[in-house]
Design brief:
Elements lengths: L13 E4 L6 H15 L3 E6 L5 H13 L4 E7 L2 H11 L3 E4 L8 E8 L3 E2 L6 H11 L14 E3 L3 H11 L8 E6 L5 H9 L4 E6 L21 H10 L3 E5 L6 E4 L5 E2 L1 H15 L5 E5 L5 H8 L3 E5 L3 H11 L3 E3 L5 E3 L8 H13 L5 H6 L5 E2 L3 E4 L3 H12 L6 E3 L4 E4 L3 E7 L5 E8 L2 H15 L2
Parallel strand pairs: 2-3, 2-4, 3-7, 8-9, 8-10, 13-14, 13-15
Antiparallel strand pairs: 1-5, 4-5, 5-6, 10-11, 11-12, 15-16, 17-22, 18-22, 19-20, 20-21, 21-22
Helix pairs in contact: 1-2, 1-4, 5-6, 8-9, 8-11
Keywords: Isomerase, Magnesium, Metal-binding, Phosphoprotein
Pfam families: PGM_PMM_I (PF02878), PGM_PMM_II (PF02879), PGM_PMM_III (PF02880), PGM_PMM_IV (PF00408)
Cofactor: Mg(2+)
């Protein structure tokens, strides 16, 4: 193993190819480093369905237990189920998953007690430094009685907690197609939906970390084609797709048409605000639709704009006491869920909203989907900073246009906006544009792409 972990330890998690970039002995070192940095005397660990996950998870547990820490293994779970356990038990936690990455990848999402995130600025860089220093000689001996490793099933408790947050008992019966992508949604959905007035049509519920049907990344349009076809075939009211570790959900309406994550953010925000007496802060990142802050203000709430990335959302939620947060990537964060993200809770909100009225989903979400967006368009560039500077020069000083650099460059006019952000890990610029109508959006999108790709 190389002593350089820069390609393995990302901004928010550990993620890489097994066994090329990391393996069980290294996972054991991560377990020891995690408990040293967090100062924990007990932790909780879960894992997804990838072939390498049980072995990596158990190695991490050994590394933690060797340093006197008691470990609770909750076994197969979704990432938000691990967050539930971290919050409910008030313990630091580690989830073994590579989310939507291909089968040869695996990773660790770590959190402190109460599901508080561990990222580069909140402990992950220190964990990386310890693991690097131990690679050759191993973790130093620890003079203490080893901790215990015990197993506990949390699936029923997790499901009950979610159902207590959203009342679905009195909704009209709904037919819902769920594409789990052979990921952890196939494990959690049957228990969470049990006893609800739902006619569930399962797709790819078999747990298979080789992803035989399609990648478990519903934000890629290619991966929801089967769901889009199946929903109208079944005469279903809607379709829901989960990613590999089932912490994100993506929704399609009764026609199989995708519903924008921004529209879902606005819908759930309105429900959370109503539950909170029309008051509260809602976090949205800077590339969600204009619809989100508009709806939040209309409902009496206070929208707060942040950079892209879950660590920024969670930090701002904790700072402001926000009741809800949403991202364009279909991550949804709830104060009632320890400020952590849970696609399952967002899905229950959509089901409750749809089942609480008589109209179809397309009609329900229309009031939350007011603008035309480009989606995220990636361009490979040789000089990220140079291209950004060229875009800034092209728009700076124009009448009626404002610029800000909270995250990349955002340019805003009366009837359109766009944001260009550099990727942290690849030579890419990411463009998102939105306007009040399709011709305006297309014009500004193409104008910016011409500058990016010049």
């Amino acid at each position: 193993m190389t002593a350089d972990l820069s390609q393995l330890v990302k901004a928010y998690d550990v993620r890489g190819v097994v066994p090329d970039q990391w393996d069980e002995p290294m996972a054991e070192l991560f377990g020891a480093a995690f408990v040293q940095v967090t100062g924990a005397d007990a932790i909780v660990i879960g894992h997804d369905m990838r072939p390498s996950s049980p072995g990596l998870s158990r190695a991490f547990a050994r590394g933690a237990a060797a340093r006197g820490v008691d470990v609770t293994e909750i076994g197969l779970c979704s990432t938000d189920q691990l967050y539930y356990a971290s919050g409910a038990f008030d313990l630091p936690g580690a989830m073994f998953t590579a989310s939507h990455n291909p089968a040869q990848y695996n990773g660790i999402k770590m959190c402190r007690a109460g599901a508080a995130p561990v990222g580069q600025d909140t402990g992950l860089s220190e964990i990386r430094e310890l693991v690097e220093s131990w690679l050759d000689s191993g973790a130093p001996a620890f003079d203490a009685t080893p901790g215990t490793i015990t197993q506990r099933d949390t699936l029923e408790d997790y499901a009950a907690h979610l159902r207590a947050l959203v009342d679905l008992t009195s909704i009209r019966p709904l037919k819902v197609v769920v594409d789990a992508g052979n990921g952890m949604g196939g494990h959690t959905v049957p228990t969470v939906f049990a006893g609800l007035p739902l006619d569930l049509v399962p797709m790819y519920f078999e747990l298979d970390g080789t992803f035989p049907n399609h990648e478990a990344n519903p934000l890629d349009p290619a991966n929801i084609v089967d769901l889009q076809k199946r929903v109208p075939e079944e005469g279903a009211d809607l379709g829901i797709a989960f990613d590999g570790d089932a912490d994100r959900c993506f929704v399609v309406d009764q026609h199989g048409d995708p519903v924008s994550p921004s529209a879902i953010t606005a819908l759930v925000a309105s429900r959370e605000l109503a539950k909170n007496g029309g008051k509260g802060t809602v976090i949205h990142n800077l590339i969600t639709s204009w619809s989100v802050p508009e709806v939040v203000r209309e409902q009496g709430g206070t929208p707060v704009r942040t950079r892209v990335g879950h660590s920024f959302i969670k930090a701002e939620m904790a700072r402001s006491g926000a009741i809800f947060g949403g991202e364009h990537s279909a991550h949804y964060y709830f104060r009632d869920f320890w400020n952590a993200d849970t696609g399952m809770l967002a899905a229950l909100h959509v089901l409750a909203a749809l089942g609480g009225q008589d109209g179809p989903l397309s009609q329900l979400v229309a009031e939350y989907d007011r603008y035309v967006g480009s989606g995220e368009i990636n361009s490979t560039v040789d000089d990220q900073a140079g291209r950004l500077a060229a875009i800034k020069a092209a728009y700076q000083g124009r009448d009626g246009i404002t610029l800000d650099e909270l995250d990349g460059l955002t340019v805003t006019a009366a009837d359109w906006w766009f944001n260009v952000r550099p990727s942290n890990t690849e030579p890419l610029l990411r463009l998102n544009a939105e306007a009040k109508d399709e011709p305006t959006m297309a014009k500004i999108r193409d104008e910016v792409l011409e500058t990016i790709r010049a």
